[in-house]
Automatic annotation (TrEMBL), chain A:
It comes from Sneathiella sedimenti. Pfam families: SoxD. This is Sarcosine oxidase subunit delta. Gene3D superfamilies: Folate-binding superfamily.
UniProtKB/TrEMBL annotation, chain B:
This is Sarcosine oxidase subunit gamma. SUPFAM superfamilies: Folate-binding domain. Gene3D superfamilies: Heterotetrameric sarcosine oxidase, Probable tRNA modification gtpase trme, domain 1. It comes from Sneathiella sedimenti.
Length: 99, 189
């Protein structure tokens, strides 16, 4: 089980949170101008990263804020959590070829 | 209490048989307040209306003369006091006229349990994954977490006393859970 560091409430157990998928996906400025391929790419296409991954979490049973977490998808190591709009923390050197 | 007194929570059906150390409190005025912290006029107006400096530090409680304010999120607080919420709502509405705020009477949203005695924090520890050890959680702290898988606000009101705010529809379940959790410690002296 993960201990996730909510930027407001501090370290809490994973059961208080809800997962929100890949972070930093910007909604297109003008969706009506996109063709189906580009719209589908925005809606459905996500990275399947092996290694450090920026993802969104919601502290759903606590302060109900969305924030970002950098988590290693293999080891579950959490590098850090940061608020929406903040810069991500520096990543450690990838180990064992995982990138 | 006129408005709330005929209103019975689901927990009331079992509250009579609660062991010593657990009680269901009578309904209180609960008002949910949202506003923009960065606007100094917001804090000043709330101070004027309630006499409380809203807590800015997460999961802290600020106490005024008639009410207290629990930090719920960076722009949200729960104000609690005795009696009816109407007077408090009106006072806040008057003080905050024209500001970007939300003031809602949520008195019926949550049932309040009081857990007291030497085993209060043991009961919480085994009911939740949050660390209720006195080293971490002290009087004046509040936390929103899961108590027996049900969302709850827990506030430590004294050295050995906790208030647990649970959704009224979950109150019978959580009440039964807490009563059961207290059983292994026997009746406190």
């Amino acid at each position: 089980m993960l201990n996730i560091d909510c930027p407001w409430c501090g370290k809490r157990h994973e059961t208080e949170f809800r997962y929100g998928g890949e972070a930093h996906i910007a909604r297109p400025e003008d969706p009506a101008m996109l063709d189906d391929t580009d719209w589908a790419a925005f809606l459905f296409m996500r990275k399947n990263t092996k290694g450090y991954f920026a993802e969104r979490w919601l502290h759903s049973h606590g302060c109900r804020r969305w924030f970002n977490v950098i988590r290693h998808t293999v080891t579950h190591e959490i590098v850090g959590a940061y608020k929406m709009g903040e810069k991500p923390p520096k990543l450690p050197k990838p180990a064992g070829g995982a990138k | 209490m006129a408005k709330n007194s005929p209103w019975i929570t689901p927990a009331a059906a079992i509250a009579r048989d609660f062991p010593a150390g657990l009680t269901e409190l009578s309904p209180r005025a609960q008002v949910n307040l949202r506003g923009i912290l960065d606007e100094s006029s917001f804090m000043t107006a709330v101070k004027t209306a309630t006499g409380i400096d809203l807590p800015i530090t997460p999961n802290k409680v600020a106490t005024g003369k008639d009410h207290k304010a629990l930090w719920l999120s960076p722009d949200e607080w729960l104000l609690i006091g005795e009696g009816e919420a109407d007077a408090l709502v009106h006072r806040l509405e008057n003080a905050l006229t024209g500001q970007h705020v939300a003031i809602n009477d949520v008195s019926a949203n949550r049932t309040i349990f009081e857990l007291s005695g030497p085993h209060g924090h043991h009961v919480l520890m085994k009911s939740s994954e949050f660390d209720f050890h006195p080293r971490v959680f002290a009087p004046g702290d509040c936390v929103q977490t899961l108590i027996a898988k049900s969302q709850a606000i827990v506030e430590q009101v004294g050295e050995d006393a906790f208030h647990i705010y649970v959704r009224s529809s979950f109150s019978r379940y959580v009440g039964a859970w807490l009563a059961e959790a207290l059983a292994e410690y026997g009746a406190p002296a």
